[in-house]
Amino acid sequence: MKPTYLAIVLVGIGLALGIVYLVRRDHIYIRQALFWLAVAAVSFALAVFPPLVDAIGELFGIAYPPTLILLAAIVVLVVKALLADIALTKVSRDLRRLNQRIAMLEAERRDDPGAPK
Predict the structure, then answer these.
(1) Which of 38, 117, 23 is nearest to 76 (CA)?
(2) Which residues have CB under 8 Å from 30's CB, separation 6+?
(3) What pLDDT is recorded for position 59?
(4) Residue 106's pLDDT is what?
């Protein structure tokens, strides 16, 4: 095995161990951890089976197959960023609605003369 492939295998294993550590410490949600574990698994698989990249590149008619890895990484990260923006929008919307409900409850409580203060 070439030193480059060995380095990629070690990075994949290190990433997987780091993600498991973050999940155990409750620093990352399972949904995000599954994505990063999949990234680690793919990097491990491509390091262990390098001809796989050449075969996939040839299947798609790509002249220089390693560029396929870069293209796939860009697409995956753009999709990941989009999903993160969707989640952030949902959390912001829920927070705004919660603040509105609290404001309405406080207004009701102020308007009710019999309410305890």
Answers:
(1) 38
(2) 23
(3) 92
(4) 92
Separation CA 77–CA 90 (nearest Å): 20
Tell me the helices (H) and strands (E) count for the chain, helix number first: 4, 0
pLDDT confidence of residue 3: 84
Residue 7 DSSP label: H
Backbone torsion region of residue 88, taken as left when φ is above 0, otherwise alpha when ψ lies between -120 and 50, otherwise beta: alpha
Here the tokens at position 65 are 């197959």
Q: What amino acid occupies position 54?
A: D
Residues 72, 38: Cα–Cα separation, whole Å: 13
Structural tokens at position 25? 């410490």
**Spatial distance between the Cα atoms of 103 and 68, rounded to a whole number of angstroms:** 53
Task: Give exposure, 82-111, as e/b (b: 16+ Cβ within 10 Å).
Answer: eeeeeeeeeeeeeeeeeeeeeeeeeeeeee
Distance, in Å, from the CA atom of 43 to the CA atom of 37, rounded to the nearest integer, reads 10
